[in-house]
Amino acid sequence: MARVSFYLDGEVVEIDVEQGATLLEAASRTGVYLNSLCGGEGICGTCKVLVKDGQIEHGSIGLLTKEEAKEGYVLACQTKVLGDVKVEVPLETRIEEGQILIDKDAEKLHTIRAGGEEVFFAREPLLDKLYLELPKPSLDDNLSDHQRLYREIRSKKKVPILHTGLTMLQGIPAILRNNEWAVTVTLGVKGDTTELLQVEGGDTSGKNYGIAVDIGTSTVVVHLVDLNSSKTIDGEAKYNSQMKYGEDVTRRIIHADEEGPEELHSLIMDDINGLISTLIFRNKVRRDDITSVICSGNTTMLHFLLNLPASWIRKTPYVSASASPPPIRATEVGIKINPRGLLYVVPMIGGWVGGDTTAGGLACGINKSERLTLLIDIGTNGEILIGNKDWMITCSASAGPAFEGMGAESGMRASRGAIEHVTMIDGRIEYSTIGDGKPKGICGSGLIDLVAELFKAGLVDRRGVLDPRKSDRIRERDSQSEFVMVPGSETETGKDIVITQPDIENLLRAKAAIYAGVNILVKSLGLEFGDFERILIAGGFGSYLDRRKTQILGLIPDIPLERIKFVGNTSIIGAKMALLSREAFTTCHRMAESVTYVDLISFPNYYDEFMAALFLPHTDLERFPTITEELSQEV
Amino acid sequence: MARVSFYLDGEVVEIDVEQGATLLEAASRTGVYLNSLCGGEGICGTCKVLVKDGQIEHGSIGLLTKEEAKEGYVLACQTKVLGDVKVEVPLETRIEEGQILIDKDAEKLHTIRAGGEEVFFAREPLLDKLYLELPKPSLDDNLSDHQRLYREIRSKKKVPILHTGLTMLQGIPAILRNNEWAVTVTLGVKGDTTELLQVEGGDTSGKNYGIAVDIGTSTVVVHLVDLNSSKTIDGEAKYNSQMKYGEDVTRRIIHADEEGPEELHSLIMDDINGLISTLIFRNKVRRDDITSVICSGNTTMLHFLLNLPASWIRKTPYVSASASPPPIRATEVGIKINPRGLLYVVPMIGGWVGGDTTAGGLACGINKSERLTLLIDIGTNGEILIGNKDWMITCSASAGPAFEGMGAESGMRASRGAIEHVTMIDGRIEYSTIGDGKPKGICGSGLIDLVAELFKAGLVDRRGVLDPRKSDRIRERDSQSEFVMVPGSETETGKDIVITQPDIENLLRAKAAIYAGVNILVKSLGLEFGDFERILIAGGFGSYLDRRKTQILGLIPDIPLERIKFVGNTSIIGAKMALLSREAFTTCHRMAESVTYVDLISFPNYYDEFMAALFLPHTDLERFPTITEELSQEV
User: Fold this and answer.
1) Adjacent-strand bridge partners of A211
2) For chain B, give me the number of helices (H) and strands (E)?
3) Which of A575, A508, A146, A159 lies closest to A360, judged by CA?
4) A306 and B143: CB-CB below 8 Å?
5) Which of B237, B270, B403, B627 has the smallest CB count inside 10 Å?
6) Are the beta carbons of B309 and A191 separated by less than 8 Å?
């Protein structure tokens, strides 16, 4: 027997195995999850681990680089244990299916990779840099500078249709000659063509960065990505400044119709540019080394981004100006990166359902999965995507920003200082905050937990009404009830963290809108919730959502918890996958074109379903049998 | 027997033929030239004629349209004569091989078609307009405006890669709705892709114009082309305003190196824009209906056009910044047409040999011909192209602007009022002027004729020296000899039209440069002039060049006249062919890449050859045996 010790970010898990067992087998017996896309064939390289010490027998190194092999990385599936061995498991090898990228609070960001079950795409960033050393011209080889450069690029990379602009051609001769014919070219994917968009002297290929943006109705998230390593370096988020012109997209479109779209466009530009500036300052990245931006978001947000007319999105039959805008120069809309850098938009599905849902489908691998999947993306609009690799259908439910912490008395975004989880045990409240410091407020996941716990404890009734008789933490202020969760003495701001009666009602309306939408779509397809092999919950929450508590709230149907997974902000995960893989971006386009869009308003019973869902967990308790049973036992 | 009467633009040619003969046979017996690309197979449609009256037996109508058939057009090769018949021969059917477009004085312009022997390209203008009536969106069909438009375009035309810009997408929704979903789109070819560059309300497809430009070192020619009918509507030319910075391209490049290229760029822009303005005013064409410009010219001129650095063209190994610049927006360099219209550049071959030679090769169908051809394009630079469909080789000889009427005392461009032909019979001078009015000056073809006639008459000797003893028209003025061709009393200006001793010497230097280049290139290939099945002379002359007189001058080798053809300004003819046919433009690119460029300076005997050619017709009379014999008989 030999002892294998797995080192997992501080934690150590040990197991004794017989000699000759593979590291993958050892890991699986401990319950340590290792990625293994190829199923142990030694091909994919996703199960890579670092052997720190001990006796092993090497096998194939699959897709590992020589550098990695030198450093001691091996494939767990191909490496046999000969004696005691210490193995470090890198973060990217441990990322669980469906948790490809958990964007905790956008301050703790992980390596991005296309994970999930069948989700695996060839790495080929939409913007690529190539270092070239050109042969100098001679009488026997006096091609023009332009053609010489193209010839060299094509000797290195397959680019059937290569094009460039006049400004480039005007500058190339001097750049080539001033740098002894050694230059780095930046190539950008534009559909089936490739643009030569930059030529720099010398070898600058090591510095190539991209920006991924998720423009939510309430929240804007920006990530900085290293296009060479595929790693997310950092992220930052803020509320969408357009909020002052309305919490929902409809009001903003009306504002644009009346006052022109410029102000809304300009606000989102300022948000994105502000976040980019923060990231490049914090990470000491040169703005000119950022060659690309990819934006995901709902249809309306992406229209405002591009200054496209959004008027007709809100009127039947909900027609967008463009569902798949072409790549353009980012500066054309005012995004401040390399002046010749490109802006990509994740293609939209149609009607209210935008690029965020396309990105979500991509990130969760629904388009490649045999398994029937329900994806619920919880945001100010709740998008619902149902399907598998053969078909997909989607709709959008208007929830309002309650789950994004907006509007609640002590609400805040899922960022440092936000209470993200709440447990009540015997009237005692325990909570955790993002960043582990003193709490500043409470974010969406914390609000969900809190309402569920209040309900379980009987402090609110099925209608969500706080009962002051049940706790002295429930008080009356300005003629409305509120529950004091954390007294000001324990908070960073010195103010009490509370949840008010209207806060609870907002949350109930939001969950009812989403639950009703999910239920109607599922039923209209003749399905039951039990038919889903996976129910994936996406959204810009903290580290995770407590699945059981979302069921107690009545947001998520009452099905066995193991089928439910929280998958984080799939909009930005999918956007990054597209930015890092031309194949993934192409897949987005195919998906966006093939998904069927339905409008909830066309279902006459939507309003009734909504009203019925305004209770905890629902008017019809038979829909939540295990919750009902659990609660009846507790009380 | 039956009488066939051919009506040819005023002239009538009649012939009696036996019944059953075809119209093509009848025409060939009269010497009336009819195009017949397919050799009488009834396939190509190029021999179409209009039967006005008489008995015929119909055959295949080949590529004729139904409308044409209805109007009475038939294929001459497929139509048998049964009785007396009157036949009108349209201009395009009569255009002779190699004379596809004789741009007389750019005021008399003909229909363009790709003619010549095997030269035939599918009509598909680089800029095309399509009228579309789109289905209105509905809940069942709520594609975005962008995708709806693409779908409709693709239902009408094969455009695998279609792209457009942000400005277009921003404007499309309103245009579609303000015009009841009936719009005209403008599509522009960009390599293997197609750009949607304009959407107009209603049906504007009838108005689609292009501009073809030949930027010569000395002369700028602009034609206005109807892209629907493929007809040249009008043309206009002027001297290149860059002349003030040097007669030859080398001096202009040096000027650009020293002072920056902006002034030279700006001058050529003004020339082109001025000529375009004249044409659109004269022909009442809306500037916005001009959707494209195509420019041909030598390498340096095309570099100045695009503001590309030209410095390295003049230094060994003669490298251009770009030999095949991509299509760009014409406004990007300052050409004033439709603001979204495209500028195409005829691809250059390399070194000094530019798009004018590519266009020339295209216009003369050298790339499709079995026959070994020598093309001499006479301009300020003389370009020489030798080859056939299997191989081509080219070089450039610096002649100076003498043949363009520049620098000569009474010289002028081949435009209205220029003496274009001169004959001396027994000391009496006969001449013809362009436009048939009083002469204002003398253009290149007139100068060639005049020197040849003066030499034949013994008024100049073999060195080109005027002999005042031989004619009282030879006088001394400002201590130089000159021959008075037309006294001021007969000229429009009131000034004598003369040729001075320096004028003659300039012409001799120009012809010597070109003849030496041709001779060196031919000899270096191990060829004799007799090996050429066709010798084509191109240039911006008047209606034609007198071939015999170019031989007397020693410009063109002494080979049988029937092998020599004057083919006009092939630079602009080829450019127009490319503008009217995507296939032709593609052919230009292939040709430009495959032609071999040689530099005359690399031939050490070039200077000796040049010196030997400074005589009339040449130092070595054995090279011009028939001329020598003819002159010895006359004298």
Assistant:
1) A224, A293
2) 16, 27
3) A575
4) no
5) B270
6) no
Q: Distance from CA of residue B369 to its chain's centroid?
A: 19
Closest CA to A485 of A406, A410, A426: A410
Residue A114 has pLDDT above 60, yes or no: no
Q: Which of A114, A243, A249, A44 lies closest to A570 in space, CA to CA?
A: A114
Interchain proximity B324–A144, CB inside 8 Å: yes
Rounded to whole angstroms, the Cα distance separating B529 from A100 reads 75
Given the cut 0.95, state whether the ipTM is greater than it: no
Please tell me the total number of residues recorded for chain A in this structure. Answer: 635
Q: For residues A66 and A498, give the distance between their C-alpha atoms in angstroms, rounded to a whole number.
A: 55
CA dist., res. A28 & res. A447, Å (int): 36
| Distance (Å) of CA B335 to CA A166, A167, B129, B232 | 14, 16, 21, 20
Task: Write out chain B residues lying below 8 Å of A149, CB-based.
Answer: none
User: What whole-number distance in Å separates Cα of residue B214 and Cα of residue B572?
Assistant: 5
* pLDDT tens-digit series, residues B126-139: 999 999 999 999 98
DSSP state for residue A481 in the 8-state scheme: E
Q: How confident is the model at residue B116 (pLDDT cuts 50, 70, 90)?
A: very low
| Sheet strands side by side (includes B193-201) | B127-133, B182-190, B193-201, B162-163
Query: What CA–CA distances, in Å, run from A514 to A402, A517, A527, A566?
Result: 12, 5, 17, 16
Of the candidates A143, A189, A149, A139, which has an alpha carbon nearest to the alpha carbon of residue A169? A149
Cis amide prior to A617 (ω within 30 degrees): yes
The beta strand positions in B115-181, using DSSP E, are 127-133, 162-163
Structure tokens at B520: 């060196």
Cβ contact, residue pair B321, A146, below 8 Å: yes
Contacts of A596 in chain B (CB under 8 A): none
CB atoms within 10 A of CB A20: 11
Residues in contact with B289: Cβ distance below 8 Å, sequence separation at least 6, in sequence order: B204, B207, B208, B209, B338
Q: A561 exposed, middle or buried (CB, 10 Å; 0-12, 13-18, 19+)? A: middle
> For residues A442, A446, A451 and A457, what is the CA-based torsion angle, rounded to 10 degrees?
-110
User: Which amino acid does the sequence have at A297?
Assistant: G
Looking at the DSSP assignment, which residues form a beta bridge with residue B430? B423
Cβ–Cβ below 8 Å for A170 and B321: yes
Section B175-195 average pLDDT: 97
Q: Do A165 and B326 touch (CB under 8 A)?
A: yes
b vs e for A255-267, b when ≥16 Cβ sit within 10 Å of the residue's Cβ?
Answer: bbeeeebeebbeb
Question: Which residues does chain B have within 8 Å of residue A586's beta carbon, measured at their own beta carbons?
Answer: none
Say how many C-beta atoms besides its own lie within 10 A of residue A348's C-beta. 30
Distance between A578 CA and the closest CA of chain B, angstroms? 20
Does an H or E element contain B605, and which? none
DSSP assignment string, A7-70 = EETTEEEEEEE-TT-BHHHHHHHHT-----TTSSSS-S-TTEEEEEEEEEE----TT--HHHHH
User: Which of B150, B159, B169, B178 would best serve as a mutation to test chain A binding (most A beta carbons within 10 A)?
Assistant: B169
Q: Which site among A192, A295, A308, A345 would you substitute to test the B interface, given the most B Cβ atoms closer than 10 Å to its Cβ?
A: A308
Reference A575, options A207, A114, A241; nearest CA is A114
CA of A301 to nearest chain B CA: how many angstroms apart?
Answer: 15
Say whether pLDDT at A110 is over 50: no
For residues A151 and A115, what is the distance between their CA atoms, to the nearest angstrom?
36
pLDDT given at position A119: 52
Calculate how close chain A gets to B262, using CA atoms only, in Å.
12
Write out pLDDT tens, residues A316-350. 999 999 999 999 999 999 999 999 999 999 999 98
